């Protein structure tokens, strides 16, 4: 029988006694997800390529027991090493990703492959390795970061959109396949939030382009925290009957 | 790399631009065909043809096609990509 401690008593939104692996934890949404988990008394295993920034993330978290594991998730060797060193976890947040705009007539194999490797292959292959090594506990929740770009058309975004639609579709398949193990799988589709990654993508555009884009959001652009809160909900027991869904968090953009 | 070659590549890249319609002194933002997709197209073309990454902000600091060309040459020379 599940132990109910004082923190979780009365609130299924708490994460006490649970441990979560977060990829892409050194910045942006991933870093904010770590804060969200820690603020609900969960324990974080932060993964990312930049070990210095990763340690910065963990040092600033509430509570104790959080750890970092460095590595490049597109490398089979790094993935195996990461999973070897893990204890079974109660959930995984796949937030490592890249975004780059490219008009359709300039799409090339290397560009597409790199985008797919990071945004689609790496999260699925990490999941595969964790399942193989039995590092995902019964009752765990897997959350994949998709994007509204996977739901609606935006120019010069075919490579990114495809990778993000793909990962949401993969999450639905995993949801059905892993239900018998009590493992849930969902995706979150954020609209534009201001992070280092989106600011970098924005440097491809003229200034003023972002302001024009923001005006299309009924609630304006979001913050990483807004997305992280949705992720924390999907990790928590409060969402125990939610699996195979894509939670759109976009300030109303796709509702227009 | 020569200005004429660059102008030719610029004209080819942007949908709707006729060959010979652009000169070194043309202010590209005044072109009827210039829009946000044209910005991304020029950036992608420069990346592919010259292996140089220019940003939208780089573009903003140029008015004419020749100024853009010179900026790219500068980046190629300095290896700043």
What does this structure look like?
The complex is a heterodimer of chains A (256) and B (81). Chain A contains 8 helices and 7 strands, in the order βαβαβαβαβαβαααβ. Chain A is of the alpha/beta class and 256 residues long. Chain A has a single domain (19-247), classed as NAD(P)-binding Rossmann-like Domain (Rossmann fold). A 7-stranded parallel β-sheet of chain A has the order 3-2-1-4-5-6-7, with helices on both faces. In chain A, helix 1 crosses helix 8 (224-235), helix 3 (76-84) packs parallel to helix 4 (109-132) and helix 4 packs parallel to helix 5 (158-178). The termini of chain A are far apart. The model of chain A is unreliable at 1-7 (pLDDT under 50). By secondary structure, chain B is an all-alpha fold. Chain B has a domain at 26-81. Chain B is 56% helix and 0% strand. Chain B has helices at 3-13, 36-50, 56-60, 65-78. Chain B is globular and about 30 Å long. At the A-B interface, loops of A face helix 2 and helix 3 of B.
Low-confidence stretches of chain A: 1-7
Helix share of residues of chain A?
25-40%
How far apart lie the N and C ends of chain A?
A: 46 Å
Query: Assembly state here?
Result: heterodimer
Q: Which geometry of chain A do the CA atoms define? A: globular
CATH class of chain A: Alpha Beta
According to CATH, what is the topology of chain A?
A: Rossmann fold
